Amino acid sequence: MHVRYRDPDRYETIRTPDWAAEAARSVSEVRTGKREDEWEVQSVLIEKGVGEETALEQAEEIVETIGEG
């Protein structure tokens, strides 16, 4: 499940940094977007089949761990 936090069109670049992947062990991927000189979480991809509520909870946990929550 893909939990989007911000519109990808607002970024110059989107990538998955190593530190974000480490904070998100229970997910497939954390994508960050770069606006001017700052990176922020753009979306979190959660393992399929966990359900929407669980995916949202896991994504929130990851964003808090990264320090953006």
The number of domains is 1
CA-CA gap between termini: 19 Å
Structural class, judged by helices and strands? Answer: alpha+beta
Main sheet specs: 4 strands, antiparallel
Q: Report the count of strand segments.
A: 4
- What would the principal axes of the Cα set say about the shape? globular
Portion of residues in helices?
Answer: 25-40%
User: Overall pLDDT, averaged?
Assistant: 79
Q: Total number of helical segments?
A: 2
Strand order of the largest sheet: 1-4-3-2
Helix-strand string:
EEHEEH
The unreliable regions are none
Computed over alpha carbons, the radius of gyration is 11 Å
Q: Approximately how much beta-strand content do the residues carry?
A: 25-35%
Strand and helix layout:
Elements: E1 2-4, E2 13-15, H1 18-23, E3 27-35, E4 38-46, H2 52-66
What features would you highlight for this structure?
single chain; alpha+beta; four-stranded antiparallel sheet; 35% strand
Structural write-up:
With 69 residues, this protein is an alpha+beta fold. The chain has one domain (2-50). 30% of the residues lie in helices and 35% in strands. It has 2 helices and 4 strands, in the order ββαββα. It has helices at 18-23, 52-66; strands spanning 2-4, 13-15, 27-35, 38-46. A 4-stranded antiparallel β-sheet has the order 1-4-3-2, with helices on one face. Strand 3 (27-35) and strand 4 form a beta hairpin.
